[in-house]
Known about the structure:
40% of the residues lie in helices and 17% in strands. The protein is built from 12 helices and 12 strands. A hairpin with a 5-residue loop joins β10 (235-238) and β11.
Amino acid sequence: MSTTSRRNFLKAAGAVAAIAAASRVEATPPGAERPGAERLRLPIGLQLYSVRDQLPTDFAGTLAQVRSAGYTVVEAAGYFDRSAADLRHAMDVAVLRCISTHHPLNVLETQLDQWLDYGHTIGLEYMVCSSSGGMHRDPAAKGPPTLDDWRWIAGELNRIGEKVKSAGITLGVHNHVPEFAVIDGVLVYSELLRLTDPKLVVFEMDCGWVYASGHNPVDLLSKTPERFPLLHVKDMVPGANGQMHSTELGRGQINYAPILRAATGLKQYFVEQEEFDIDPMQALRIDAEYLRNLRV
């Protein structure tokens, strides 16, 4: 996902910050959850967008720092012009497993075979549509997608998902804020869940953006937990400008104990921190420590 696109999503989040406050998932210190709660059993994963500024200048060194910060599984957001063999080697050297990757919908529509071949080499289990919004069935159309556009997107996800499944990988769908628009009384995210085939398409809920959109991740997970084998874990806090901002886990407004407890279909989660006001590696160590200490 491009930096410009991410910035647009941050601006969109600002428009719903007040709504998010109403559905606040209260922060609770790790270890203060319900009696008998247990630590997470899954390895701590990282979405590599979190280190997008470091990877281009020191790819191997950055991966080594990610590993030393406590992460063992990663999700790619771009391959930085490396061949599949080179990227697989770099991951092996860093003792990391890259099991998932992000591509926007237009790339999946036009370059799928190329990236499926790449994915086989690096050992992907999931190929995730990083951004499905903004596209129209009619390429000449302008403005936000209509409900019919979103329904067309759901059909495209099914079509792509079938091909991805036949290649031995699973297609996932990641959200930002636009998926939580209400059009003609219909919540877009619910429509995507309804129209995509569970055998072909799974969802990677970005809990931070769900929260920023004014919704509680627990509510969505509780309805169809089997649709959500993947999660993005990020904390959010309102800034002075009224927009929601990404921050270290445990320092924002989201308590992940009830979220992860509701995620009974979870196979893997990935920390993603998009903004930093301290050293990024220090921040990612704080994120990993929060999850090591969290009991659900």
